[in-house]
Amino acid sequence: MKKLRVLLLGGGGREHAVAWKISQSEMLDQLFVAPGNGGTQEIATNLAFSETDFEALKSALLDHKIDLVVVGPEAPLVLGVREFIEQDAEIGHVKIVGPGKVGAQLEGSKSFSKQFMERHNIPTARFGEFNASQLDEAVKFLDSFNPPYVIKADGLAAGKGVLIIDDKQEAADSLKEMLLDGKFGDAGTKVVIEEFLSGIELSVFVLTDGKDYVILPEAKDYKRIGEGDQGLNTGGMGSISPVSFAKGAFMDKVIDRVVKPTVSGLKKEGIAYNGFIFIGLMNVNGEPQVIEYNCRLGDPETESVMPRIKSDFLNVLWNCGKGEIAGSELLIDDRTAACVMAVSGGYPESYEKGKEIKGLSNVDGTLIFHAGTKSNDGKIITSGGRVIAFTSLAENLEDALSKTYESISKIDFEKMYYRKDIGFDLN
Ligand code: AMP
Ligand code: GLY
């Protein structure tokens, strides 16, 4: 059996979880992570370059004789990392999990993804799109909806480009700020206005080689900073997998109405897509509606999804990279994974870094995935807003959560915060 040399791009909790899973593979020769974090360095070799530094990536691919690149975050994909590798004679043989520039527009442009859904009859909220010369039309379009109004910057805006506003005047003011005053910069020079969907959210993950696909365990993410889903949006404060309502007739609808037409739509349009599709769904009274696509895995969903995969995940990634995913199967652990994220006090607004994390070695029976940490003089210190994800597996949600919370109580860093109600809306 060929042993693989793998490079994973990214440095968050998602990448630690994927690295953890890959590191268990019998097919692995050596794993590198760039830039990685204080957790990935325990199980892989961290390489000190940014995930969007393509020249450094090329040197690493050559120096370390890499067979497979797995791309964690969206930025390198939207910037064309696939094309950069494929079109270079020296590294063009390296296999990649992650779509090309056009496929990555499913995430990189709300307008592209809404139009794609429209072309393929994929259920999504009614919408309109407007550019800087169409402010009056955009304001008028608000009249065709009941509040709250959903306004989205077209481009990538670090997760902040979605506004949900109750007051019409405020919505009109925000449209002006985005279209004319440069709020969100280039990302907001085009906007999508869409119908507000009321329901419960779900993240579904598909890994496709553009022809066939496998579906990973689904998860629910908790995005708001405060308990009861109150307060500012964050990257995600915790996740649960499986999700109690994601089964039977509902999942059949997700597969028939969303997953299949998405994969076949890409193929029909000649968009070679080799990588993850993250489908953000709303369950509206039992009917799935797509809120968004991402061209990567979710964070912190991945921290509860990876622990439930029993199969050799590197094998499936390798098959995907080669364009041979047909016939791949994922064996899934029936148990429930509960992930809770410990964050720096103040996050998602300003916060301090460099705090020593104490007590990690006291945690037992819970997986620890580092998100924003680095090592410093033999100590692990905080280096980001989201710091560490804790994931426990148990027979039911209640037991998984209580184990996770027991483990979190064993660690500490100055101004540590976490939500104590993850999973509150599931049973
Ligand atoms: P997005 O960046 O498109 O994922 O949007 C961020 C968050 O805004 C989503 O996770 C939802 O919670 C919320 N959201 C986006 N679009 C809608 C919508 N049409 N109706 C209700 N909530 C939405
Ligand atoms: N947890 C949501 C995301 O990764 O976009």
How are the SSEs placed, and which strands pair?
Blueprint: E1 4-10, H1 13-23, E2 28-35, E3 45-46, H2 54-63, E4 68-71, H3 75-78, H4 81-86, E5 95-97, H5 101-108, H6 110-119, E6 127-131, H7 135-141, E7 149-153, E8 162-165, H8 168-179, E9 190-194, E10 200-208, E11 213-215, E12 220-221, E13 224-226, E14 230-233, E15 238-241, H9 248-268, E16 275-284, E17 287-294, H10 301-305, H11 313-322, E18 336-344, E19 367-370, E20 373-376, E21 379-382, E22 386-394, H12 397-408, E23 416-417
Bound molecules: adenosine monophosphate and glycine (GLY).
How would you describe this protein?
This protein is an alpha+beta fold and 427 residues long. Among the domains are: 4-102, Rossmann fold; 126-194, ATP-grasp fold, A domain (Dna Ligase, domain 1, 2-Layer Sandwich). It has helices spanning 13-23, 54-63, 75-78, 81-86, 101-108, 110-119, 135-141, 168-179, 248-268, 301-305, 313-322, 397-408; strands spanning 4-10, 28-35, 45-46, 68-71, 95-97, 127-131, 149-153, 162-165, 190-194, 200-208, 213-215, 220-221, 224-226, 230-233, 238-241, 275-284, 287-294, 336-344, 367-370, 373-376, 379-382, 386-394, 416-417. The strands form 6 sheets. Strands 12, 15, 18, 19, 22 and 23 form a 6-stranded antiparallel sheet that branches. Strands 3-2-1-4-5 form a 5-stranded parallel sheet, covered by helices on one side. The protein has a 4-stranded antiparallel sheet with strand order 6-9-7-8, with helices on both faces. Helix 1 links the parallel strand 1 and strand 2. Helix 5 (101-108) crosses helix 6. The radius of gyration is 21 Å and the shape is globular. The model has no long low-confidence stretch (mean pLDDT 96). Bound molecules: adenosine monophosphate and glycine. Adenosine monophosphate (AMP) is lined by residues 125, 150, 162, 194, 196-197, 201, 223, 280, 291-292.
